[in-house]
Input
Amino acid sequence: MRKLGTAVGCVLILLWCLLPVAWIISLSFKSQAAITNGSPGFFPADGAGAGWQNYKDVLDNPQFRRAIVNSIGISLIATLLSVIIATLAAYAIARLEFKGKKFVLTMALAIAMFPVVSLVGPLFDMWRTIGLYDTWPGLIIPYMSFTLPLAIWTLSAFFREIPWELEQAAQVDGATSWQAFRKVIVPLAAPGVFTAAILTFFFAWNDFVFGISLTSTESARPIPAALSFFVGADPFNRPASLLAAGAVVSTIPIIIIVLIFQRKIVAGLTSGAVKG
Amino acid sequence: MSTYTATAGEKARPDTTTPPDSNRAKAENALGRRLVLPAIIVMLIVTAFPMLRALYLSLYNYSLTAPEDKEFVGLSNYVTALSDPLFWRDTGVTVLYMVVTVAIELVIGFIFAMVMHRVIFARGVIRTSILIPYGIITVVSGFAWQFAFSYQNGFINSWIPGMDLQFNWFGETTPAVIAIMVSEIWKTTPFMSLLLLAGLAQVSEDMIEAAKVDGATWWQRLWKVILPNMRAAIMVAVLFRALDAYRIFDNIAVMTAGAVKTESISFLTYRQTIEQFQLGIGSALSVLLFLSVLLIAWLIVKLFRVDLAAARQEG
Amino acid sequence: MAAIDMKNIVKKYGDGFPAVNDVSIDVADGEFMILVGPSGCGKSTLLRMIVGLEDITSGDMMIGDRKVNDLAPKERNLAMVFQNYALYPHLTVYENIAFPLRLAKEDNKTVDEKVRAASKTLELDEHLDRKPANLSGGQRQRVAMGRAIVRDADAFLFDEPLSNLDAKLRGQMRSEIARLQKKLGITTVYVTHDQTEAMTLGDRVAVLKRGILQQLASPRELYTNPGNLFVAGFIGSPPMNFLPATVEGTTVELPFGKVEIPADKAAKVAGRGLLIAGIRPEAFEDASVVDQTRKGSTFRAKIDQVEWLGNTAYAYIPFEAPPEVLEQLQQLERDLDGETLRTQLVVSLDGSSKVAEDDDAEIWVDTSQMHLFDPATGENLTIDLERAGRVPALEQGHDPAEQVQAEHEVADRQTAAAESAEG
Output
């Protein structure tokens, strides 16, 4: 009985998670002509299949190609900067006794909860004045408003778990401070830093609000924004299958990362919030 | 790290309740502050600074279409916003999105967590698949569900028995809101379930077995033993998700663009500032949005007595 | 190999708090020295000062003939086993043991020889490729020891190495450590809060309380000639009984009646008024099973409870104590990390004794084993200084009352610190 329930539950979870993904993949194989004429149903109807045509069209589209480059570049730089700054802060929070420790964590949490749309208006105005509008830095800086708190929160949870007295044990074993740090602490901290980087990257990759508000051309527009501007002629009948192909392309990196690092990602997601 | 017992952290210090060495403490204090300083500066630059700017702009009548007409108007932007029924309608819709999605996510997320907690083999497969909705771009989720609900190219109408195949989900408020909620719930339930799973893992098996021996039914064990002991995890999950849901934007922008009264307060703010260049009133809305998020956070923390610090340090 | 000589070591924290206060301990080359005391006594701080993880406020720390006060841990050439073993979770057992050798840049062949030799001694051969997370508590403990013995360290330091093991394993590892130390003949300093470990392992034992060395002596000396109430109460299990006593001539009045003590003891306490008598449970016996020729006194008392263990039986006899004694006993109980229970006498009877609960039994006591303590300072008035090792409080230039004062200050601070930490 119990086993049956669990098995049914597993199937439900798999359906929940994968059905919409299967749907968007299936949709991406419907031909554009079929979409324009209306082609309901989960799978492409007979003769309405497009093969790889939609993918070819999407990848041939210079704007979309440019969006991929933008998304990767901007997300990576924002992640890198956030993780570097957050590593310093999280080390201090986990390892050192100092006044204002709680303040930093509270501040990070408060900012993580911040409504990003509230920032859009003033940033829009300021970026236009100082020339950051529609540039990479113009997105990287606001991305830090959510990537940095997330990285601080996750990393300080990870660092708290590191048995820091190993550093002392290593010194007793004959290591210099630097050797103790490099041979003991770095190998222990690296997985945490890496996981924090993955989570941070997900957030940056997912951004939409800043992407549509602070860009006007393809020079900095990231994938989510680019997809939403992929409207075509009729706003009420978008080139759904083409969009689906774009969506699948933008999801592939996420799926690869998830497949490789699922264990670490789960640890990172939950340790930051529940455990300490 | 599993080589360590629970006392590991404490025992690194000498076995006394002594306060630390003052020189060392001072140096530590200074180093600690120096290390967190960049983080604080960046966080202030990217949030506090624009927020102050918004506060300032909200006191002006300022439109980007006519920047030279900028004039100080005091609180009148706030009066305009707060006396506009549109603001209250959008706030109401936003609260509805928040309450309904968080409530449903909590129930489904908990069921998922229970399943994941019990499943022994195929754990990796389940965990991998549950991370996919989490990792997918919200915009993509919005598109996927918009097309799924579409009567022209979707499949949902044909999968619901007795459904009119020509039914347009995006033609009226209620079905459109439902469609938006479905996309939101689909994407964020995995996150909820992982948080709850972590909480579930902290409820000791011994306690549940003790309750069995004491004669508690499955239902009683759930309500009287498991849930009370996961309180911290549940509250943290609700707080995180509620604040996130209140900011709902991406799905609305993609699926309806705010049409048929599906607009949230975030989307209204965006429309005023970015689409209509009304920075004065838009900034006032930004400030109001910020304040309402604060209010909700405060309400949840007070109402459910969430102790974030405790939730973090326990376990 | 080297001797470790601590001379007037002081550790003061920023606010003047003395965690270790003027402690002098000389550990001879090859000696097994135990630092023992309840939590907060400064024993771990002292150990960490030896190894160099804690700064020394004043005093000299000598290893061999080197003064090491300002040397980094790396330069002191000591090996340490931590309470939590401090194994490196990312390294295999082999690499954990090899770690100090790798740091010393030994060539692979030497490393392999030494690691194999250590793993053979510690029976870790089949676990060399595993990670610490997959080992049991006892195995982890052995890996930690392995890491210590591969080095040619001048001394071993142990920081409560057995406290995370269960009782059975603790016993096994205890004899393992003792055997290893004898075999290697290496100078060892071992910190514990467990008096059994202290008694069984140590050549000599240093008993510490609130940063002050109470007594430094062999286990036998500590047991038979404790320097003060604290040492007397700390060493021995079940602990020594403390009873209010008044001495007149050679007669001691205890709550249960009068007993006679040897004249030499009586002379040392003549005219002191109310005292605290300390008698170990083993000094008592059921009068009916005692050989009549043995010297001693008897008294009658009502038995409250009996625990029969086969070879021996413990009988409990409650008594009332006057307030000045009670207060001292409660303070002692707190010093020993204990709970204040009611005052009762524990007597150890022969297994053949038929004494039962609620009996009004006749109990025999060997009064030559009785000690008499000053209730104000806790000092042992009947101590045999020839056989008591070192008792710093009774040395020239030391005023016991002054030490009590210093200890009380520390106690107040600890209470205040504990309270502020809770707040």
